[in-house]
Every structure is written in structure tokens, then in C-alpha cells.
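Possible regression after last week's pipeline update?

I re-ran a chain I had predicted before the update to compare outputs. Posting the input and the new output here so someone can diff against the archived version. Not blocking, just want to make sure nothing changed silently.
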Amino acid sequence: MNPKHQWLLFSSLLTKSPHHQDSLQIQEPKPALTGGSDILAIAVESADAESTVLVLKDRSCPSQQQPSAVSPTLTGVVRNCPPQDRGKEAWCFLAAASLILQVSWGFAVSFGVFREYYFKNPPFRKIHSIAEVGVLSSGLIQVLSPLLVRYLSGRPEKRMPMMWMGMIICTISSIGAAFARTPVQLIMTQGALHGVGSGFLFTPTMSLMDEWFMQRRSLANGIYYGACSLSAAVLPPVFSAMLERYGQRATMISWSIFSGTVMAVCLLSIRPRLRLTGENQISQKSPLSGDISYSFFAKPIFWLVLVSNVLQAFAQSLPSVYLPSYATDMQITAGKASLLLTYYNLTGLIVQPFLGTLIDKRGVLIPLILSSLVPSIAVLLGWGFSRTYWSLAIVSVVFGSLSYGFAVLRSRFATAVVGDDDHPNQELIVSSLINLIRGLAFVSSGFIGASAVSLGEGIGIQSGYGAGKWLPLILTTGILFGMASIGALGFLRTKKQKMNVREGTSDIIE
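New output (post-update):
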């Protein structure tokens, strides 16, 4: 019998005296093991002190609450929760969630190829406002996060209906975009409507992720967010070929059918780890349950983490937007320049799971520094002095592989702010607020990049650092990423996790 996943009731005396079952009292629960153990010991004694029941509670399965009294229905083994961090059900959930992210958020980050097609073809030819479609869609996914978390708090049963609604909205948005003929129609369908639908899919998935993964949560997040990098690398050439051959309407209708089918199949495979129970069963507690407190606003680490995320979000997308243009200014062909983005996204896909594993094993500090200072150096030294294709390819690989680390760090940022793993509802609030601010900063990054590029337009291409024209953009990107490492100050004094000690019943109850 595995104590990690079920209660063990040691009640040999109780079975000899069944009448004692009606007079049992619960003592104060005490931790069985220190240092973040998942086991909680509860001593249950009869009124005449002639019998004792030792209950080992699995805190990794928070569905099991402390009983107010021990009844015959509680003697025996309580029904298991599926295991966390391992097992077929956990990995099937992660695979299904990652596929949903690929066809929802992944579609949003692939808008660049649509923008290029729309800008060159009627009815949106040379209309600059359509560039807001991609930014609006990606931004809304993150901006809606805290509002949806607040609504879902105490309502975990609403998560799956919300995800089905999100799937329907995303499908309708693609069909609407197929028939859009004005910029407003395109912005409202492929931009706003798709962003809302993707937000309805993204936020419930985050709470489910926190149910299924604890010790390997950052690894799971690395795989999950890596799905976006895969979409950004694979979908643009596919959409480009379809748009050129079949046009806007056929491409969007085909995508709505394909994506809707994929999301529906994946949603059928997604289930909460903590099952809702009936009246006579032990009630279950999900990461969305519990009282909501905003005391974390008073913690300096919250503000350090928030500022770090804002600075990183300002600069995150700038290389992917402008690096191909820089390459063409260096007399590199357009085909090779576009391949830089493939290197950028594929290396992010490969490195994110490894970065997540490092976070799970070593904590936040080292990955945070790697995800901020190393990209800063790659931009300031690599991009600034690059003149050849392969030097720019190295910049794309280094920057792309590590700059996505902040997405993987999301859950661990929230855990550090809250202080422990025992308040998953608080962690969701913190992470959703970080997503909100990041979304707003991401939208603002377009204006920051445009302003930096406009400053260099009058300089023209020169032989010096940053090729003259690109100097303001390179300095802006590199400095912002370097300043994003300020969040590391919040983790320099964090205490090391205590080691699990003392096993056995003699050490559990003194």
C-alpha cells in the first residue's frame, strides 16, 4: 500500500471494540514529515483512550479533508486520486493540453504570415491597422487570465464547460475571419474573438496543470509552452502556402474545421485530477478552492517578480519581429532571413523542457539569470556586431532557447510569492496577475519597438555597431532583458527547502 496516494488507517484495537467508533475524537493534526512532505498525520483517539487510529493524509491529493469524526464508512482505504507527476493519466492530460495550446495560442503567434498576405492583397492591401490583430489576440489571452481565475474560484466544476465554450468561440472566430472584408471585422474576429476563446481554454488549463503536476510542474510547463514554439515554427510556412494557393476564405474555413476537430478530441481526453464527489463521499479540494487573500501585495518579492516580467515582456518579441529585417539589410536573402525565426522557435521548443527540469531540481534563481542575462548578452554583443548569416543564426539560437524561460518560471514565481505549495488558489491569483501585466506589456512592446526603429531610420546603414540604423533597437532590447534580472534579488535570501526527516509511527505522534 502506497502512503503517497491513500490514507492508511491503523485501527486494530478499533476492530476489536466496534462500539468505540461512536466515541472517537480528532486530535490536532501535526505534520508527519517536515520540509514540504505530502504526508499529514492525524491522531484519532476514542473517548476512553483505549484505542488509537493513525491517519496518514496525502497532501498531494488535497481532496481528502480532515474528518470531523471517524465513522464506520471511513475505516479502510479511501478512494485514490490519480498520481501526480507521473502515470498515464497525467501525461495524457499534458499532451492534450499542449495540442490545444498549439491550435489556439499557437495560431495567434503565427499571425505574422497572415499580416504579410493581408497587407499585399485586397481587401486589406496596405492597411496598417490589421497589424493589431495578432497583438490583440495574444494579449487578450493573458489579460483575461485574472478575471477568469476570479470567476472560477470556488467553481472548479465550471472549468470544462468554459473550455468547451472557448473551443466553440475559436472555431467561430476563424469562420468569421474567412468572411471579413473590413479591418474592423478582421480585428474583431481573428483578433478579439479568437483571443477571448483562447483565454477560455488557457486559464482553466493552468489550474488543471497545478492539479496534475507538483514536483515536475516546471518540466510540464516547459513542454506545454514549448507547444507554442512548435506552432510558431511549423504553422507559418503551412499558412503561407495555403494563402497563396487558396486565398483567405478557403484557408480560414479549412483551419476552423481542423482546429475545431483537434480541440474537441483533446477536450474529451482532459479530466480534472480531483474528481467531484457526492454527498456521502469525502469532499475534494481543487486549486481553485479556498479563501482568496491579496496579502501578497505587501511582499517585496511580488513586486520584484512583477517588474522583472514587465521588462522581459517589453523586449521578448522584438528580435523575432525585426531580426529578419536586419538580416536583409545585411544583404542576406529573404529566404535565409525567415529561417532565423525557425531556429529561434525550434530551439525554444527543445530547451524549455530542460529548463523546466532545472527549475524543479535547482529552484528559480539560476534559470531566472539564464533567461535574462544570457539573452541580454546575446543581443548586445552578438546581434550588435553580427554581419553574417551564421553569426545571426547563433544569436537566434541563444536568444530563442533561453528567452522563453519566463513562461516556464510562471508557476514557480507564484509559489515563491505565496510562500509554499499549500495554497494553490493563491498561486493561481498571483500567476494570473503576472499574466495580465505581461499581456499589457506585450501589447506595449509593439510601440516600443516601432519608436526604437524610427530613431534609427535617419541614421541609415553604416559599418559601426548595430549597423547604425539598428543601434537604438539593439540597445533597447539588450538593456531591457538585462534589467529583467532584477527579479533575482527576490530569491537571493530564500531559504533552502527543508529535507524530509523522521519516518514511522513513533516519530509522527509524540
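Follow-up from reviewer: compared with the archived run. Residues 166 and 197 are 4 Å apart (CA to CA). Marking as no regression found.
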